[in-house]
Amino acid sequence: MRIFISVDIEGVAGVCETLQGRRGNPEYEVARRLMTQEANAAIAGAFDGGATEVTVADSHGPMRNIIAEDLDDRARLVSGKPRPLSMIQGIDDKHDGVILIGYHGAASNFGVMAHTVSGLAFHSIMINGVQAGEPTLFGGYAAEIGVPLLAVSGDDRLAQEISAQFPSARNITVKQALGAGAMNSLSPKKSREMITQQVRDVVAAAKGAPVESPCKVPLTISVRFHKQLYADGAALLPQMERCDAQTLKFVANSHADAISTISALALIVNGLQ
User: Fold this and answer.
1) 3-class DSSP state for residue 173?
2) pLDDT, tens digit, for every residue of 214-244?
3) Three-class SS state of 130
4) How far apart are CA 36 and CA 72, in angstroms?
């Protein structure tokens, strides 16, 4: 049984401010260790549930945060960027399930450090009229290739999104959002214990898990940027339709195309800084 685990940092227990996700400070070093430990908790649960192979994708920011030497040596690690499928790179249709650890709410949702793909670039992203978070994109891609989303960990606002978009996926709620930079969190130890138990249970039942996605292709994607300047740069791409000063629209025929295009838009914004 092959299980794929994508790990972000904002939804990790004990993490609640932007500084913890940025390199070059002591708070980041603490947060990346907590991220690595939650990844290990999920890996342990997957193998306890019957997995024979686990791949972990480091999926926060520079995508090189997990402390490789501390990662459970039974798992493979995908790291670095840019990469074509971004946070879901490494999954294929031979996997039996996907698990998202340390994820967060969508851009324009109330949640701890809520954003979609790039907090710097995007005010909000809508796909076929659905408020799109990262699970919408990456769980949607997994569904498109026939792989079910088994479980997601993060805050209570993320849990609401998952319940609406992937109703059969297990929500592992490790903290409550009090604001963009405030939380009421379980201890990291308790959170890791819960992740291991919940992942074990969903992996053990993975063979019967339904494949769900909130958005079917073709995907009509509306991207609203924080600044007009960002939209000006992105509008140079031929597939973009300008809707207003800060909003562009395009159509993707697959989740993979949507992921690569949105990732490219984020890179364009980085270049305009």
Assistant:
1) strand
2) 999 999 999 999 999 999 999 999 999 999 9
3) strand
4) 9
CA dist 88 → 60, 74, 77, 139 (Å)? 11, 19, 12, 8
Angle between helix axes 188-204 and 26-48 (nearest 10 degrees) is 30
SS3 (DSSP) at 204: helix
Q: What pLDDT does residue 273 have?
A: 80
Q: What angle do CA 238, 244, 246 make, to 5 degrees?
A: 85
Of residues 115, 123, 226, 255, which has the active-site annotation?
A: 115
pTM of the model: 0.97
- At 24, list the tokens: 């070059």
In the chain, the amino acid numbered 212 is E
- Among the listed residues 35, 61, 27, the one whose alpha carbon sits nearest the alpha carbon of residue 191: 35
CA distance linking residue 186 with residue 194, whole number of Å:
10
User: Is residue 60 annotated as part of the catalytic site, yes or no?
Assistant: no
